[in-house]
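From the shared-data thread, chain only:
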Amino acid sequence: MLDNIIVEKGIIKNHLGIERDGDFIKPIRFTKKQFAAYSLTEPLAVRSRCMAGICLDMITDSDFVRFDYVVKGIVRNWIYFDVFLNDVFVESIGSNQVDEGEYTFEYRVESKAKEKNQKNRITIYLPYNIDLSMGNFRLAENAFISGIKPYDKTLLCLGDSITQGMDARHPSCIYPVLLSRFLKMELLNQGVGGYVFNSDSLDENFSLKPDIITVAYGTNDWSKCSSPEEFRHNCRDYMEKLVSLFPDIDIYVMTPFWREDLNEMRDAGSFYDLSDTIKDVCRAYPKVVVLDGLELIPHLPAYFGDKWVHPSDEGFKDIALNFLAKTRL
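Structure, as tokens:
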């Protein structure tokens, strides 16, 4: 069965594991302990089950790729699958409206790449904002298929809704995916919309050994913490545990990005105080580099999908390019 071949050949990438979901398969981004941390509310739980950063990546001579999928949860009411043909972004397949239910995805290879027995690399990024399962994969009869040799290094991205991808339209345009493609690294995107600095989301038995870690929390903490002291404690507790789990790994912490209401005062203090606290906490760790999030994206609502806090595709590109420029990775 082709579904088993898809799994065995490592066609599904940028995940932590693959579970069975009835007759379908479901890639996952988190350990059981991490899922437990995110299961406290249904909005967090459905976000943790979304496909952020996960893709299908294959070499095949088939002139089409087709599979069924079931939408079980929706975070933003649109759905897009981004298709790369031989590393060129060629098509985004989907809709501005989606409901829960069963659907079929199909990509047909461009005519110029259909020459007999020509093998193409087809990469399909799954929607970052949808909880889905997949199955019934189909290719042309007797088609060749193989996986892609993994990159030597892995990027782990930790964060909230901006790391997950809200509000990009294209799942390949979110900054974790852009960084992984630019840096030629495997990716695990563990962004969860609405989340904060919380050490409970870090698993002591985490099996993945990343080469680089990015961290981007704070914008939700600003609303949820009742005092500057509470925020400092949460940030310090999280960073202490993260560094203890990955003592030899380069960690890049991004302070909160620009948002339209950043001049308001909250119980946790000013937006600028929040960023200063993150910088101060991180000074204790030699392997941690802090990047000022206000320097990574234009301070213009036009660069935000919601004109307020969540970047658009264009805003995410700026974050990725400025991150690379400042870190020189």
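The mean pLDDT is 97.
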